[in-house]
Amino acid sequence: MASSSLLVALLFCSCSLEVSGKDAQCQGDVGTNNLQGDDNILLQSKVAISKVLDDVNPPTDEGGDLVPKCEVKIGTKGKKSPYPPGFRGKKIRICTGRYADDESQTYTIMRLDGDVRRPLVVNTQTGFAQYPEYVFASLQLRPKASWDTFLTKKDDMISFLKFVCLPKYANTFGVDCGRIALVGYSAGGMTSQLVGQELRKASGIKAVVTLNGHLSADDGNAKLRFENADKSDCPSYLMFVGKKDENFQNKKRSLVPHLEANNIDYELHELKGVGHGSGIKSVKGFLYETTKAFLARHLAS
Questions:
Q1: What is the CATH number of the domain that holds 249?
Q2: Which residues have C-beta within 8 Å of that of residue 298, sequence separation ≥ 6?
Q3: Measured between alpha carbons, how far is 111 from 226 in angstroms, rounded to an integer?
Q4: What's the maximum distance between 2 C-alpha atoms anywhere in the chain?
């Protein structure tokens, strides 16, 4: 069973960056705040869909093994609270369990308690997109042994989305499966884009956010390329990439023209002084606030 201790208090800081993309606007410095935060934003997270691929088998539920375990807690207050802003002092429903048959395929779902259905925001390998307006899901994917097994991650995310949007579980979690966003860092971001382009808006995927985790348009492995760009219902994309992250800077060079050529809605922020896993603490606040505004635009009813 996955632990529910995945919450992180976010440290708001200013940052230097460059911005590009459709409808992108230059961003000024983000104000500082004295919130206490975990130094490591790249939390290994544990993960939603009204329609999914027929060739992904639904999880079995023999003996009730997939029945979620849910509890209601009061989010502690104060600067040292482990709960994100907006959850402190509120009644919070936290559910944990498995979404498929393997013991490693686990999730944690957190939301404000109540009967209102909310959009679902799925975080994979990161935890910075936790907002009280949404149902927050953190997904544990099966580990990859090599790039040959990388696509098990995509299958796992689709399995989770199919699980969480089964009517009985959608009711339990209070999710609106017509409004879903996927958020991921590194391999979690690549997985989010693969799933976003495979399922798209027709399956409820409205937005995808990546941090040093986008695909390229010309990868030698066709299964790891940004595909289906010619479809009319592609989700909107928000991409953050470190100026010092050479690998994902290289991927960007083929992806951006591909998005432009296919008129896909996107926003790209290049983060000065940030590498693949370094310098991210200094831009936590910018990630949080920019993602919050992006989701508000694309998950509105």
A1: 3.40.50.1820
A2: 181, 206, 207, 235, 236
A3: 32
A4: 54
| In a domain? residue 40 | yes
User: CA 77 → CA 5, 20, 93, 130, 172, distances in Å?
Assistant: 16, 38, 16, 16, 26
With contact defined as beta carbons under 8 Å apart, do 228 and 53 qualify? Answer: no
Residue 36's domain spans which residues? 17-298
Contact 7, 84 (CB under 8 A): yes
What is the average pLDDT across 113-135?
Answer: 94
Instruction: Tell whether 205 is covered by a domain.
Output: yes
The DSSP secondary structure of the chain, one letter per residue, reads ---S----PPPP----EEEEETT-----PPPP------S----------SS--TTSPPPP-GGGTT--EEEEEEPP-STT-SSPTTTTTSEEEEEEEESSSSTT-EEEEEEESSS--EEEEEEES------TTSEEEEEPPPPPSSGGGTHHHHHHHHHHHHHHTSHHHHHHHTEEEEEEEEEEETHHHHHHHHHHHHHTGGGTEEEEEEES---BSS-SSGGGB---TT-TTPPEEEEEEETT-HHHHHHHHHHHHHHHHTT--EEEEEETT--SSSSGGGGHHHHHHHHHHHHHHHS--
> For all residues of the chain together, what is the average pLDDT?
81
Q: What is the pTM of this model?
A: 0.82
| CA dihedral of residues 111, 115, 116, 120 (deg, nearest 10) | 40
- Number of domains forming the structure of the chain: 1
Nearest to 110 by CA among 258, 224, 245, 6: 6
Q: How distant, in Å, are the alpha carbons of 12, 19, 60, 166 from that of 63?
A: 45, 51, 9, 17
Q: How confident is the model at residue 60 (pLDDT cuts 50, 70, 90)?
A: low
11 belongs to a structural domain: no
In a domain, 9, yes or no: no
The token pair at 116 is 């209102």
